[in-house]
Amino acid sequence: MTGATTPTQDAPLPVTAVTCLEDRAQVERAVTVELAEGVQRLRLGPLTALAVDRTLRAETAAPGTRVLEARLVRTWAPRAPLPPGPEDSALRHRLHALEAEYRQTEQARARLDARLALLAQLSADLLREIGEGAGVGEIERTRWARELDRVDAERERHGEELRATHSRLRRLDQERSQALTALDEAEEEPAELHAHLELTVEAERPGPAELTVSHLVPCALWRPSYRATLSVGGTGNGDTNNGHTNNDGTDSGSTAGGLRLESEAVVWQRTGEDWTGARLTFSTARSALATDPPALTEDVLTLRERTGEERRTVEVELREEAIGELGPTATVPGLDDGGEVRVLTAPAPATVPSDGRAHRVPLGAFTGPASSEYACAPELSPLVTQVVRFRNAAGHPLLAGPVELVRGSGFTGRGELRFTATGADAELSFGSSDGYRVVREAEERQATTALTGRQTTTRTVRLHLSRFSGPEERDEQLVTVRERVPVSEVAAVEVRLRKEDCSPAPDSFDAEGIVRWDVPLAPGARHTLTLVYEIAASAKVAGL
Fold first, then answer.
1. Residue 149 neighbours by CB distance under 10 Å
2. Which run of H or E residues covers position 170?
3. Alpha-carbon distance 416 to 404, whole Å?
4. DSSP string spanning 384-405?
5. In whole angstroms, what is the distance from residue 206 CA to residue 243 CA?
6. SS3 category, 369
7. How far is it, in rounded angstroms, from Cα 334 to Cα 22?
8. For 171, which DSSP code?
């Protein structure tokens, strides 16, 4: 068995696969090295200095070879010289200009030295020719004198330029030294942290062996993103809709079309090294949450006797309550995976530079049928919005994320897709339509029974719908209008929908207090909807 050895050169350790988590990444590296027999030490890298030491794992599948030790070694080194950028100081720009001018002057001095050497060679050749010609009796005094004068004039001119160049070099060298001194006093260039991987490997016989290294690294994250393209048949522009409402309250006359949904992952990373041609996997695992114990708070319950006034009075209040649905809210950041870890794999290797910018990696796409309707909730907004419903045919759950909306006229805006399980129905809003207008009017009347003191509040809501269409549109369009009615949680307060006074009668009224009409509107038509309901409370109810 031979002793441990250390190679003189570093072996590269490229990134081959990356698993992006919610706020970090699991990096995998692979390299094939030549091993000698016995125990030896390898130095691989460089790699990012942000690698987490406790997650470092190195292994090899070569028979008769095993990894005895793996550790990260970090060293500080001065940064490589780079040209100054816009954020650098004027002193650094001045130093860069002096160094560039010094290099140009040094090149000019070298050219003058070469020219003077050539002229000296030419003068020596001319004097040798004069000596040889005088020896054989061929005397050309006029030509020789002219050539000697020309060579001497050139040597004198270039000599003056060379002396001026030497003087300029001395001046530039002095200014550069002063600028360097001032820069050292004013600015201190921070050193850069480098990391290498040192492995101690034992091999029973020499030969190649493939090493696999994995570790966690921070400063990397990903989020899902989508692009929804609605086909022309699904826009509902100019389509006839003569459908009716089913018994279950669903609309059987929604406009049918097609929707193509493209999924992609948006990746940001500033780990200090590029991921070039790496296999990317995206996971919703939250490895950092397991380290934080749940917070424990005290919950103190006390009992007391109610007063006589409290027994005679029922305190009620009106509150707004959102209907619970799957999907994230604006106050919950991060990934919404439905409570179960999801893993998505990119179909092809990708490159993600370490620049901290957003880079998009395609994940897949599917095309399926979609139904479209125009919906309006006048209490919340006077706009009529096109809502598209489709079924998730991606083969995996769709995580919550932003969606770029595209239809026949091109890019229309951005929306939000909620978490959708495999095979479940999802809906997207493709923006409002300028061809509709809704005006809402509400009035309230209160009455009290003299004998029992019962209070009755009657509320009347009128909705005025108008459709403004171009001359090319001649078909009816179905508009779904939703209005809400309060829902009582106490027996002392009763809420009743007066269907006999509603005009027209609602198409549906569910347990959550949502009243729905399906209104067919022809081009240029106007329609008025009337909703009447009453809230009755006993005399001991207070707070309404």
1. 10
2. helix 141-186
3. 9
4. -EEEEEEE--SSSPBPPEEEEE
5. 78
6. strand
7. 7
8. H
**Omega before 224 within 30 of 0, i.e. cis:** no
Of residues 325, 371, 372, 377, the one with CA closest to residue 516? 377
pLDDT at residue 247 is higher than 70? no
245 pLDDT tier (thresholds 50, 70, 90): very low
Structure tokens at 525: 């038509």
Domains of the chain by residue range: 15-79+191-217, 90-186, 220-289+310-432, 436-542
Q: What percent of the chain has pLDDT over 70?
A: 86
When mean pLDDT is compared across 137-146, 283-292, 405-414, the lowest value belongs to: 283-292
Q: What kind and span of H or E run contains 263?
A: strand 255-269
HEC letters along 306-338: CCHHHHHCEECCCCCCCCCCCCCCCCCCCCCCC
Residue for token pair 């479940």: 424
Cβ contact 37:2 at 8 Å? yes
Q: Six-digit token pair at 491?
A: 């027996």
* Closest C-alpha to 485, from 398, 379, 411: 379
253, pLDDT greater than 50: no
In this structure, what DSSP letter does residue 70 have?
E
C-beta of residue 79 within 8 angstroms of C-beta of residue 189: yes
Residue at token pair 């022309």 = 232
Measured CA to CA in angstroms, residue 543 lies from 100, 369, 519 at distances of 82, 49, 37
pLDDT digits (tens, 9 = 90+) for 440-465: 999 999 888 877 778 888 999 999 99
**Any idea what the Cα angle at residue 281 is, between residues 275 and 286, rounded to 5°?**
105
Structural tokens at position 281: 């996997």
